[in-house]
Amino acid sequence: MQVSVEVTDEMRREAEARGLPIVDFVETLVARGLETLRDQSQVNSAIERIRALRSPAPR
């Protein structure tokens, strides 16, 4: 699969400052975003389990 991404001048400068090719820099950003989503999903799941435990049992 091929994906096209528009990169701002600021992103290009950041990649250059880190000594990374822009493709590697963008891949790092995407990976970080996916990791954040996974972590958020785990937190949301834990919150739902806590809510279920705290709710009164049906009679």
3D architecture notes:
This protein has two helices and no strands. With 59 residues, the chain is an all-alpha fold. Helix 1 (9-18) crosses helix 2. The radius of gyration is 20 Å and the shape is rod-shaped. The mean pLDDT is 86.
Summary of the model, kept short:
By secondary structure, this protein is mainly α.
Number of strands: 0
Q: Count up the helices.
A: 2
Mean pLDDT: 86
Low-confidence stretches: none
- Biggest sheet architecture: none
Could you give the distance between the termini?
A: 53 Å
Helix content: over 70%
Compressed to H and E, one letter per element, the order equals: HH
Structural class: mainly alpha
Principal-axis shape equals rod-shaped
Note the beta-strand portion. under 5%
Radius of gyration, CA atoms, in whole angstroms: 20 Å
SSE arrangement:
Elements: H1 9-18, H2 22-54
Helix pairs in contact: 1-2
